[in-house]
Every structure is written in structure tokens, then in C-alpha cells.
Specification:
The structure is a homotetramer.
Chain A: H1 8-18, H2 21-28, H3 35-42, E1 47-49, E2 64-66, E3 69-71, E4 75-77, H4 91-100, E5 105-107, H5 115-121, E6 126-130, H6 136-148, E7 154-157, H7 167-172, H8 212-221, E8 226-231, H9 234-242, E9 247-250, H10 264-275, E10 281-284, H11 290-298, E11 303-306, H12 308-340, E12 353-355
Parallel strand pairs in A: 4-11, 5-6, 6-7, 7-8, 8-9, 9-10, 10-11
Antiparallel strand pairs in A: 1-12, 2-3
Helix pairs in contact in A: 1-12, 4-5, 4-12, 9-10, 11-12
């Protein structure tokens, strides 16, 4: 690991330099023009943290509890596909790192290692991210396998009924290398979808897309907590709670599915206000600093998930890189708490925020 | 066609690389400093699309109807001059591509092929764009020729009574090459306009400019629907309806005539509010993505027109390029509808929009 | 003159390439960091022009009258020093060009040619810009000479009681070349100002600075109209009218004196509202396009003055360059009037404006 | 000293060119991404100064009084560590320069020369900046030494209970060179802090951090005026006054401790409004121009402190450089007063300000 790797931006920089162009386009690319991806970061530039000084910090801690699991700090590994693209051991390496850093890894449906092998290697809790499969039985099989392997929660991703328009990947001509594939899924049927000339998207392609009833059915089919990932609107959060979900992840899929949707930070306070504490609200998208996490918590998040930086660190530093990257974030978070005079996560509320444009100090936008 | 041509921006990039400098200045240039041209694009950056998830998309479609014509999707080819500048077959190639992509081409008064030859080659509906000629009889001749050749609608362009101050073209020293000219018009009289030293513009040059009475006369002279192209103000939309027009195209002529006028997107909601559904409102200017089209529809547009990208694609890929470019846009539009949970164009209303500056979420500016 | 010189920006570009570094720093430089100079331009980017179409333009004209002088168009030459820096004949060449372009030149107190020689060469009206001299008699001598030479108005510059902090000039080590000096002024006394160590500015340096009484005395001492140049605040406009001035020039001296003051466009509507037509309000600062002039008039200006572009054009094209540059501006102004549907200057009012930020359409900021 | 050194930006530029990379990272670097550091500068770009003209400037002066000390101008030297990094004589050279420029130097606890040696060399008033030490007795020893050496005031820094996340320094691998250290402090104990794996920050590291009671105790232990440095919130200003402080320094430590906190200028008016004249409010952070100082005073500051530019000037020009840099600032301040028509500091109030965004002219944000 280069000695100047001291922040998440450094991992990204080193990854950009060393990665294969196609892999880089896949990992760092986004939908269309990358507008939402850039805004995920830029959203944090609209806010200032307001520090209190000379506060008593005795017994300060960033610890929290999620679905009965004690966490030293509220930072989880987001689900991302195909870790073997950047490390020969793939998700197994990531899971080992998660345990070293004492946090939760969320394993993707599109993992490049079997979910059972990942669970066997891990010595810390895992969650499982689920894409609803065209056939309910296939979905249920994945659920039962995750339960059997000891996964502690399920995340149903709802914002990607079809793939994003990933121009960066397309321009780079990215294809999955030989030997890397979504091993937890049955082989995809040969692409013989007959497309009606009148529509490239709407003829058949979406007939099997999941609906609210899919979520309801899933919640009824498992005793694991089911989180819904990919909610941006308060109305959808309401529907998700009504369908029985145990938590919500405000997310735009890292800007990888539909470009021009808002950054998670812009809608998080609206969703959190609607949820009003009935279930935990998590968030991902552009979080790269401890101060970002303080802002997310102030806007209503119970915890955050980290996506691309995990792949950057896995590529640059392997197991050690991922564990170090997580510890950097934890350190930054705790330093930000100390320097703003907040001894506990619950002390982080909207009074810590000031809008940079002067519009509405002390309040979420 | 280069294999990395996967979006309209790619066509533009390849065109910029391969085109003759003068032709590029003509096609991609704009009036004065290009401020309005840039804002045509930038206007979209002020908006976010708000997606709904897990929606039922059964029977989803982007189809619509305009003046009795059924369209698979609401994207038309805008009128642009001299297609022979970028392709040896000129407008004939474009018309063939429009038919392949199952949409309408609008043929310019300044086409480099006779309007009859274009109509003969086309196997899909055509519209005809009209510049009012100094003499009414010349205007009427064009109308009668378009009617006879089977054109289905007329667009009267009203925002260019004089040419724009096209500094980019002037700096590049652009002149029409030998053999390319506005073949549908009589030869321009030799430029012997005696300019009074007191005014370079106002002495005689505008005496024959069209007025509201010209529009009224035109509407009375044909049974084709007459659209007025180049309206930016609600008051002018009202006057145009009063004069009998069948539709309005909100447009600043791609920023090519008067720099510093607002982008079409900024005034579209004001015009649409005033028109209030009495006639369809179309729009052009800077539309390069399916998400742009969703935004335009949310702000009141019934359909959009595409200008420069048609020339880019015609130069880069010929007939196939134009058809592919249109299909890319259609695909992006349909994907955006699916990913925002809108099964039909009529489901796209202002609640899909959020102002990026946080000013007025859920409402047009 | 290079053939691609088709706008004021082209003159600036060619001047930047050909000018001596010191002369360029003097002409194009500004106070401190050039913040105000940049904002003079940027202020125009906050506004859009709203065009009306199909308007009757019969008899359209940009002509106006100022202090009894008929002008074909409302664009004057602003006072700038030392034209010999860029042309061997200095202000004489500029005056000839002004007459060719049928407009008024304002001659600076710091002209590098005697005011009588300029007047002798000119065959069009001249105005004289005045700096109040430490001794009233010296000021009066200048006034009498201007009157005798046939100047038609006086501009008293009030925003420069001391020189600006012109870091760009200082870094370039600019000094007036041998043979170029302010020939209309007596030789400056040797710089033996004893500076008190406690203050580099306030000890003596400002004891002779002009006050409101200076203006009153000047207005009483001449029958020529006296304009006050360098007003940015409505309160000062009121005082200037009270002191007897015949007109006001809203100006920040091209950003050359105090950096961080607002652009003229930002305060023009406030000043114009206070003046309320009692005297004409002129404006300079960053005007480079005909559309800028339309905006200035919409915000309350009766006419505009052009500074640096005159020196650019004089350097690049001599007499012909200055005349061409002025005609370019006039052409752009008239084209903008035609394309916004305004047949006369008086038709240009705030309804032609839209704030780009959406804040307050149809009204000055 | 290079002859083009005519502003603080020039000193910064020359320093950047000549300094060792590590020293540059230490001096010019900031916490994390440097967001707050950049905003310290950018905050000034939100404001314009509104000049009044033809004002009577007889007897004008920038002089003021602080804690009974007469100052020719309200610009002090902020505390910064380790001046020997940029000059062999370290803080002694700076103190000599301060006296030449007739202003106050604030000596850092982390000075690289003993506070007694600095005092012996200085022939002008000194203030002493204090970090509360883990043991009160060590703090008290520093206070008594400063009193004995004749320091006139104490600044307790409260915004840095732990070091900032200084990534720029870390990437550059900066270490204090042999022979440069905080000589006024006892040797730091060997770093044997046992870190609990559950938290990199919160285990023990903050147990000795100062609290409000520390400030109260300090105020009671000395007859020198105690200023509190590092306040950004009005509530903390209130608490500081309650604890007995004699003055407040609004500061974010030059952006070196916690990134994303607001620029001092953004919160200064809020703090000043709360303090309401009970004690003087000083400010530092990004001040590089005389016009910045006018703005700070208009927003409620009694005086300003200058940090990094002192090190730039000390490196580039030694004693003479620092004295010149201070005189440049004084000259710019006085010129700004003269050109805005303010004869005394007390004439600088919020009516001199205009918000650049047009939001609230004539009032602090």
C-alpha cells in the first residue's frame, strides 16, 4: 500500500492508476453522464458543521445498535458485485476485512463467490442483498440459502428493475472476464428476448419486475429483518413500511441506474421525517469522510453504507486495505464528534448543520 | 461508426473530430458568445427526477398522438438547413432514417434537396418548416408545394427575421461549398442593399419581416396544421393561438439567432401554463438524453424536437447513425419512464421534478 | 486587421497577443485581484433578454438625444488615459474614428495629446473628462481650455481621489515610456511627500481630495453640462443632483480603483430609480455586446460608454479598427432590438429582462 | 525579495515555489480536503463594498485601541507554530518585524524559540497563545512565564482538543526537522497510549481535554486579559463571556482542525450580534486584502489576525518581508477606507456591504 494512502480519496486515486480500464469503468462509472454520481459528493458541499467547544467528552463513543446487533460505529459495507474483479479471493477477502474492522458486510446477489463460502470465511455478521428474481421460487431459494448460511438481515434492492444506461462501461467495452460471474444465480437464459420494433424497453423486459406485493411476500416469507434499498421518496418509504419492511436504505445506487435523480443527502431529511423513527433509515452515496457521516446522521440516518471505496481499498491493499479504510472512516467520524462537541450519535441533530448558501441555518434543507 | 458511440454526446464528439472546421462552426456554432446555447444544456442541470419504485409497469408505453398522427415516442427531427454539408445525399438520407426510426422529420425551407425529392424518398410522415418570404406569393408557392408533396404539417419559424450574429461561423470564414444551396428557394437577389450610414440594420433590411398578420394569413391559406416555432413568451403564445395556429414550438433556435435569450426549459412552464392545453406545446434546445425529455414533458411539452444531433449522427453514421441515435434517445426515454415508475407519458407531471437548488421541489420554477 | 476580428472579444484577444506586457498590464489590468473587473462582465450573465416575435418594426431606430446632441446610437467613447501607448497618434486617431462612427469621444485629463490638438483634428463632438486638481485654479484652467476648444460637456471623475492598488501593473513593472505623459497637466511636483510612519495613506495625501463643494463650485463655474462619473450609490446620486450636475455616470472605473465594489449593472437600477429621470444616467463597465447595451437601457441607462475596447481596437486596427468596433456594437444593438421586437430605445424597459436565477423575472434585481 | 512581491498573494506564490514540500504542506495545508480553508477565502467573494464619494476625509485614520493598547491599525499577527521552519531565527525575527510595523505579535505555545527570548528581542507588545496542558500546573507555569516576560494578553485556543486530520501533511510525510520543536513545552511523553480496538479516538485521548471550567479557572488565575480563540457559535461566545473572558476570536484555526466547519466570516455577524459589544470580537481566517478587513469590521470585528501570510513573508523576505507585508495590508486598508469614504473604523458599518447574490443588500447575511 502506498504510504500516502491516508484517506478514501487516496484509495480512489491509486485504484484509478492501477486498475484495468474496463474494470475502472465498471467500478467508478455511473449511469449516463454521471450527474447524480457527482451530486452525491457535491451535496455535502452545501452544508457546514457547526462545532461546540470545551464540551465534556467523558465516555464519548460512536457505538450504536442495529436490529439487535451492537456496532462500534455506524458504518457498514454496502453490497457491490463481483469483488473478484479487483482481488483474487473476491468477497471472502472483504468479509475477513469487515470482521477485522468489526463491522457488517452486505453480500451482493451478484457476488463472485458463493454466499456459503463467504459466510464460512467470515467471523463477523453478514447481511445479504437480494435482487428479486423473475421467478418467485428462485428468489425464495436465495432467501433460504442466506438464512441457512447465517446471514442476519436481507436488503431488497428496488431501484434497478432494469440495468442503468452505463455509457462509461459501454465506451470502455467492459465485459466480465472469464471465470468471474454471479455464481449465486442460475445461468442467465440465452438472450432471446424478442424485441418489438415499437419499443426497445417496454416489450416484455419489465413483465417480471418486482412490485410492492413482491416486498410484502418477501417480508412474510422470512423471519430475518428485510430492509428496502433504493428509496428516494417519502411516499415510497411509507409504502415500504406498510409492506412490512424493517428498515429503509435511502440510495440512488451510487448513481449507477438512473442519472439525474437527486443525491441521497437531498432527500434523506424528507424520508426521515416521514418515517419518523418507525424503522431505521440508512443511507449510501458519496460518503467519503467522517464529516459526511456526521451530516448524514444529522439529517436522519441511523447508519451509512460504503460502496466503491471498499473496492478501491480491496484492489489497492487487499484485506488490510479494506480494514484500514474502514478504520480511517471511523477515526474521522470520532474526531468530528469530538471536535463538534458531540459525545454520542444521539447528540448529532440538525442544530449541528448550517446551509452553506445561508438559506436556512440550523435546519435540514 | 466507432464502437464507443453509445449516446448523443458521442456522436457530437466524433463529429467534432471529423468535421471540416467551417462546417463544424456552422453546425455547432451559435450566436455571439454561445451563452444561450450553453444554457440550453445547463437548464437541465437545475432539475432532478424523483423516482417511484416497485410500480406496476404492465402495458407501459411512450406512444402518443400529434395532430392525428400516432407516434411510438414523442421525439421528432427538428428542421435544420443544408444536410448535404454532412452527407452526400443530404435530407434524403435523413428522411430514410426517420422512417426507419418510425418518427417525423421536419424538412427545412433551407434544405439542400428539393422538398419533392425528400418526400419521394421518405416512407414516413414529413413536416415542412417555413420561412416567410419577402413576397407573400413566394411563401404561398412553398406552402402549395409542401401540400402537394404530402407534407402533414407546417412550422412557421418566427424568431429569425434577420440572421444571428454568428461569430463562430464568421471567425471560421464559413461559406456554403459549391453545389450546396437552399434549392427550394429562388436564387437570392444580389446583395445590393444600400445601407444608410446611420444604421447597419434598420434601413430596409426589416421592411419585409413577417408580422402577426402573416401568420393569420398563412393559417387561413392552408388546411394543414400550422405550428409557430420560436416562441419564448406566454404573451406571444396567446397571440399565436389567436392567429389560428395549431401548435407552438418553444425554441430559441438552438441559440443561433439572438444570444442571451433564456433556455427553452426556463420559459416552457410559463408558456405551457398560458396555453393551458388549447394546442400542443413542443420544445427544442439542448435535449440530449431521455431524462431531458421526461423533464420537458413534466414542464408541459407534448413532444420534443432534436436538431444538431441529427446532423452529428448523419455525419458520423449516415442513415444508420441517425436511426441509431433516435433509438438511443427512445431507449433512454423508456428506461427513464420505467425507473421513475411512469407507465405512460400522461403520468409524467410536475411531481416528478425537484429543483436542484432546493428552491421549489415538486413544482416548475 | 486579422480577418477573424468580428466582435469586441476578438479585438481584446488580438491586443493581448500583440501588446507589450507592461502596456497590456496597464490597459487590461485592474485593482487588486480584478474581482470587480470580472464581475462587471459576469453581471450580464445574471440576466436573460425576453424576445417578442412578429412585431412591427417599421421605422425602427436606435437614435437618441443627449444634452441636445443627436446620436445615431447610444454608445459613447469613455475617457481613458494615454492613447499614445497603443497608437503613435494617440487621441487624435481616436477622435477621427469617433467622427467616422458618428459618436462622441470623451477625452481624458490624462490624454497624451493636448486637448486643443485633439479638438482640431476631430470633426465630431467631444466631451472632456476632468480630474479635480489639488489647486482650484488648475482645475479652472482645464475647464476654460476645454470650453475654448469647443468641448460640449464635462465629466468630473469622483471615484479616484487616490490611485488604485494596481497589482497587475506593479508586477509587470509598468512605467510610462519616454515621451508619453499627461500633456494637459503641469508637471507633477517631485514626489517628496513626507509620509508619517503611522500611516502610508492618510497623512497629507488626501488633504486636497475633492468634496461635494468642489462639484458645486464646478457646476457654477461653467455653462457646459457637468456629468459626475463614478457614482455607485443612490444617496450619492441624490447629492450630485443637489450640487447641480447635468448627468450621472454609474461606473466603478472599470474595476481599476477599488476592488470588491459592485459591478455597475448591479447598482444601476437602484441609482436610476432614485434619479427618476431628473438627469440622464449613463453607465460603463464590462459592456462588450449589443445585448449588454439593451440590458443596461432596460435597467435605466440613457447611454453607455466603452473604455478598454477602444484601446484594443486602436492598437489592433488604428482609426479603422475603432470605427469598425463601434459599428459592430451598433449593429449588435440594432439586431438585438429587432430580435426582441423593440423598435425604439424607449421600448426597452424592465419587461425585457428575466433574472437567470429565476428569482425575479420581469424586474430589475 | 522578488520585485513583483506587491500583495499577500505574491508572498504566498513565492513561498510555494521556494519552500520544501513538507514545510509547504505543513504551512499551507489544512484539515482533510481543505474545504473550510478554501471557504475562508471564498466567503469574501459573497460581499461587495459600497463606496461613498466626495466625502470629507480630513483627519482620517485607521487607529484603534484594544485592551488599553493603542494600535495604528487593527491588524495583529496570529499565533502560528514553529517559525524556525521558515527562518533560522524563528519567532525572534517575527517579533522584530512586528515592532517595525508597529503592531502586536501573538506568540504560540508551540513557538520554536523560548517565550522569554522572543520577549527579550521584541520592542513592541506581545500576546501569548495558550494550549491548556493535560496537567493544570503545566498550564499555570506557562501563564506565569508569560506574565513574567511581559506579555500583555493571553489567547486560549479552544478549537483543537485533538489534532486535525491533516491529510496534506500526512501525504507529504512531514516531520519536524531535527532541532525544531516546541521548546516552551516539556518533552512529550513517549507515545504509549494504549488504544482500545473499539475506538481510535475516544479511549483516553480526550480525558484531559479542557472544558469550560478550565477557562474559568484560567481567567481567575491571571490579571492579564484572556481571549478565547476558536469560537464559531454564538452560544459558545455567551458561555465564554460568562466564564470571564476579555475577548473572543472567531476562528476555525485556518481550516486546520476540522474540515467542513463554516468560514469565520459566515458566523462572525451572528457571534458579534450575540456579544453585542460586551467584549471585543476579533477574527482570523483567509484575510489577504485590506478590503477583507473592511468587510470583517463591517460584520462586527474590532480587529483581525493574520496567520499564514506571516510565515510566507518570513520565508520570502525575513524581517523586512514581514514588516512589508503588514504595511501592504495597512495601506490597502487605508486606501479602502478612503475610497469608500470612511474616515474612521467606527464609520465602517453594515451599510457598507452588499450581498453579491442580491439577497440582502445593506445588511449582514
Amino acid at each position: 500500500m502506498p504510504s500516502d494512502t491516508v484517506s478514501l480519496a487516496d484509495y480512489e486515486r491509486h485504484f484509478a492508476r492501477m486498475a484495468d480500464a474496463g474494470v475502472r469503468a465498471y467500478v467508478d462509472g455511473a449511469a449516463a453522464d454521471g450527474f447524480t454520481q457527482r451530486n452525491n459528493r457535491a451535496a455535502f458541499d452545501n452544508l457546514y458543521l457547526l462545532p461546540r467547544v470545551l464540551t465534556d467528552l467523558t465516555g464519548a463513543t460512536a457505538a450504536t445498535t442495529l436490529f439487535g446487533m451492537a456496532l462500534d460505529y455506524p458504518i457498514l459495507i454496502a453490497p457491490t458485485a463481483y469483488h473478484k474483479l479487483v482481488h483474487p479471493e473476491g468477497e471472502v477477502a472483504t468479509a475477513v476485512a469487515a470482521a477485522l474492522a468489526r463491522t457488517v458486510m452486505t453480500v451482493s446477489t451478484q457476488a463472485s463467490v458463493s454466499l456459503e463460502d463467504i459466510a464460512a470465511a467470515a467471523h463477523a455478521p453478514l447481511w445479504f442483498q437480494l435482487y428479486a428474481q423473475p421467478r418467485w421460487d428462485d428468489t425464495l431459494t436465495l432467501v433460504r440459502r442466506a438464512e441457512a448460511a447465517g446471514y442476519k438481515a436481507l436488503l431488497l434492492t428496488v431501484d434497478a428493475p432494469l440495468s442503468g444506461i452505463r455509457n462509461m462501461e459501454q465506451r470502455a467495452g467492459f465485459r466480465l472476464p472469464e471465470g468471474i460471474r454471479a455464481v449465486n444465480l442460475p445461468d442467465a437464459p440465452a438472450s432471446v428476448r424478442p424485441v418489438h420494433p415499437g419499443s426497445p424497453v417496454f416489450q416484455g423486459m419489465l413483465n417480471d419486475a418486482p412490485c410492492w406485493s413482491t416486498l410484502e411476500r418477501l417480508c412474510g416469507a422470512t423471519s430475518l429483518p428485510v430492509l428496502v434499498k433504493g428509496i428516494l421518496m417519502p411516499e415510497d418509504a411509507e409504502l415500504a413500511i406498510g409492506a412490512g419492511c424493517a428498515g429503509i436504505v435511502v440510495s440512488n445506487h451510487g448513481g449507477r441506474v438512473l442519472d439525474t435523480v437527486p443525491p441521497a443527502m437531498a432527500v434523506l431529511p424528507l424520508v426521515a421525517a416521514r418515517v419518523a423513527g418507525r424503522v431505521p433509515v440508512l443511507v449510501d452515496g458519496g460518503i467519503r469522510r467522517g464529516t459526511d457521516i456526521v451530516m448524514a446522521i444529522a439529517l436522519g440516518a441511523a447508519a451509512v453504507l460504503i460502496g466503491r471505496p471498499v473496492l478501491h481499498a480491496l484492489a489497492v491493499g487487499g484485506v488490510e486495505g479494506v480494514a484500514h479504510m474502514l478504520t480511517v472512516l471511523q477515526t474521522e467520524l470520532e474526531a468530528a464528534m469530538a471536535l463538534t462537541g458531540r459525545a454520542r450519535l444521539k447528540d448529532i441533530d440538525p442544530t449541528i448543520l448550517m446551509a452553506r448558501n445561508g438559506g436556512c441555518a440550523y435546519a435540514p434543507r
